[in-house]
Amino acid sequence: MIKILHLSDIHMGSGFCHGRINAETGLNTRLEDFVKTLSRCIDRALADPVDLVLFGGDAFPDATPAPYVQEAFASQFRRLVDANIPTVLLVGNHDQHSQGQGGASLCIYRTLGVPGFVVGDKLTTHRIETRNGSVQVLTLPWLTHSTLMTRQETEGLSMESVNQLLIERLRVVLEGEIRRFDPDVPTVLLGHLMADNASLGAERFLAVGKGFTIPLSLLTRPCFDYVALGHVHRHQNLNKSNNPPVIYPGSIERVDFSEEKEDKGYVMIELAQGSTKWEFCQVSARSFRTIEVDISKVEDPQKAIMKAIAKHDIQDAVVRLIYKLRSEQLDLIDSSSLHDALSAAHTYTIQPELVSQLARPRIPELSASNSIDPMAALQTYLNNREDLKDIAESMLEAAHKLLADDEEIYLEPATDEQKSQNHLLVGGTTNTQLSFL
Ligand SMILES: [Mn+2]
Description:
- The strands form four sheets. Strands 4-3-2-1-13-14 form a six-stranded mixed β-sheet, covered by helices on one side.
- β16, α9 (335-342) and β17 (347-354) form a beta-alpha-beta unit.
- It has three domains: 2-282, Purple Acid Phosphatase, chain A, domain 2 (4-Layer Sandwich), CATH 3.60.21.10; 288-354, no CATH class; 364-425, no CATH class.
- The protein is of the alpha/beta class and 437 residues long.
- The chain has twelve helices and 17 strands.
- α1 (29-47) packs parallel to α2 (67-82) and α10 packs antiparallel against α11.
- The structure holds manganese (II) ion.
- Manganese (II) ion binds next to loops.
């Protein structure tokens, strides 16, 4: 039996907006949080001790982290080198350069020849000798279209056919690797990927481009004794029958509010051919708390907000207070007492959202159920906007030009915040956001 610690999605150096500067160290407290949580994982690896550590990818927010962030990461993994614990560092999408191959932020470990460290930046099988025997680790880093295909092959194909072709290529390459496995040695697939039935967390908003999903059937092969995944921040097992377990350990610290309700931790594995056992071990990551209250219809708004705050345990948490109010209620809010009430939090933001009483009714012709071409939609909209009369003609002209010019329009994926703001604007509500850090 081989003991393994599997962790993933460290994202060290991200979420600084949720922290503050520690006056004693000069560092952002969120970096210190991430280092602390990572050190808890490494502590466990050393205490047991485990025979192998598997990291599922996404070490940093991008491929070029600041040197002090790199160093904080390295000094924790260094402890595994000192204890002679072999470690596989898989390359995730955040570790890759958008152009070219490999993960610059992790390949340095191979370049330096760190003893016992394997960098998984290619689809290949590594045979690793541990204190308790050999193990095969097939590394499957984040795939991009250029990994398995040339530009000529994908030219003229739709995104969907390119993805399909990529899955077919992957199937063939995986098959080739599987056939070369030593059948007497326990085997792990270590992959940074989006499986097609995973439930999502913050990685949706963190990803730069839209990725594609990998069919679960490619992973649930009997030749694997454990499938160690990275990418999805919510811990989950995708194969309830556990033959083999297909596990996302999730991120080790909350990257943002979308992970507010998730438990954070790592996975301990007892790897044996055909009878692997695993257990999720929680670590105490910093809590995130959303306090949301609608005071637009209450008589004493201040009291209602204070009551809402009192209901939550905000001690040392990253807190956001969101309250919806009417503009005439603004004077009834005593913001200094809100600050006092939130002072026990690690950091907090206060987001008043104005509910406009003068919201324009929607134009019936433009409701979601009607399909209408963009130019006609704009025309209808302008017909209803007396105030835009002077520039209506030039707006139409500009829109016409835009539509004619651009055959290929690349749409930047909207951030969560933008989406919610758009939503609020469409709904006839204005959204004012004030942050206090
Ligand atoms: Mn990822």
